Amino acid sequence: MSEFKNVTVVKQANVYFDGKVNSRTIILADGSKKTLGFMQPGEYTFHTADPEWMEILAGELEVCLPASDWQTVKGGEAFNVPANSQFTMKIKIPTDYCCSFLK
């Protein structure tokens, strides 16, 4: 899906790691939440409560998920993040993403 219709956009930006990772939250008509964001090169560790589906729209990164080895993910690919976990991403080139929070 290249666009979302009938959404609410939270105006306040989500800014992490001294501004190197930024996103905006959107809320779909069914109440589900997503973030649309952009990451500059660097290494970042995140913690999650809910499971996530991370779609890489453009760019390239390496991700280390719980109980897994590092894997390369490029634009057009995606990965699942388990609930209540920590994961690390090494952003190789500026990367555009969409994160869906699953319940």
TrEMBL record:
GO terms for cellular component: cytosol. Its EC number is 2.4.2.1, 2.4.2.2. It comes from the Bacteria. The keyword Phosphoprotein does not apply. It catalyses: adenosine + phosphate = alpha-D-ribose 1-phosphate + adenine; uridine + phosphate = alpha-D-ribose 1-phosphate + uracil; a purine D-ribonucleoside + phosphate = a purine nucleobase + alpha-D-ribose 1-phosphate; inosine + phosphate = alpha-D-ribose 1-phosphate + hypoxanthine. Keywords: Glycosyltransferase, Transferase. Gene3D superfamilies: Jelly Rolls. GO terms for molecular function: guanosine phosphorylase activity; purine-nucleoside phosphorylase activity; thymidine phosphorylase activity; uridine phosphorylase activity. It is an enzyme of class 2 (transferase). InterPro entries: Ppnp (IPR009664), RmlC-like_jellyroll (IPR014710), RmlC_Cupin_sf (IPR011051). CDD domains: cupin_PpnP-like. HAMAP family: Nucleos_phosphorylase_PpnP. Belongs to the nucleoside phosphorylase PpnP family. Catalyzes the phosphorolysis of diverse nucleosides, yielding D-ribose 1-phosphate and the respective free bases. Can use uridine, adenosine, guanosine, cytidine, thymidine, inosine and xanthosine as substrates. Also catalyzes the reverse reactions. This is Pyrimidine/purine nucleoside phosphorylase. The lineage of its organism: Bacteria, Pseudomonadati, Pseudomonadota, Betaproteobacteria, Nitrosomonadales. The gene is ppnP.
